[in-house]
Amino acid sequence: ETVQISAFVQETADSFEQAYGRRVQVNMKESCTVETDRSKLRQLIYIFLDNARKYSDEDIQIEVKQNTICIRDKGIGIPSEDINKIFDRFYRVDKARTRKTGGFGLGLPIAKELAEAIGADVRIESEEGRGTTAIIILSEFSFYPGILKGKRGEKE
Ligand code: ATP
């Protein structure tokens, strides 16, 4: 499916806002069109938005720049010793701090599988006490900049 990233991210952010009553600010830098699976990409964005919602209290920010989508929160952050384990099944940072949010530690492993299925790369950068940024990089083979239309590389 062909997906116009800026419109798609805005739509996803709006539906998340509606569902959870949490503000999501979208900042579009450069949009592009990608060839991807809409439903998987939506689920992937939702997992990161949902973590941002659970582990922070302020507005959530999304930035779109070409084939990169960053989901940023100013929440509790992830200690550096845990950052390599959060994509493992059932891994949750310090049970005491995450108990009130519930969850099984399955969101991120699922995100990893969804990303693999659509050929995207996902990373998490975080600073404890300051916040977390989840980065989705869509495959460069499947995207073409906004000015091009039709098949990849073919000018309108
Ligand atoms: P669920 O299975 O409902 O998604 P979960 O949030 O515990 O539950 P993951 O999404 O896999 O599971 O996240 C794993 C752990 O990584 C979380 O328990 C939390 O400690 C940490 N984490 C993930 N995202 C963030 C974030 N944005 N800010 C702070 N900690 C986070």
TrEMBL record:
| GO cellular component terms, A-Z | plasma membrane
Q: Which parts of the sequence belong to the Histidine kinase domain?
A: 1-142
Organism, by scientific name, is: Domibacillus epiphyticus
Q: Where in the cell is it found?
A: Cell membrane
Upper lineage is: Bacteria, Bacillati, Bacillota, Bacilli, Bacillales
Q: Name one GO molecular function term.
A: ATP binding
What keyword terms does UniProt attach to this protein?
Answer: ATP-binding, Cell membrane, Coiled coil, Kinase, Membrane, Nucleotide-binding, Phosphoprotein, Transferase, Transmembrane, Transmembrane helix, Two-component regulatory system
Tell me the stretch of the parent sequence this chain holds. Answer: 305 to 460 of 460
Protein name from the UniProt record: histidine kinase
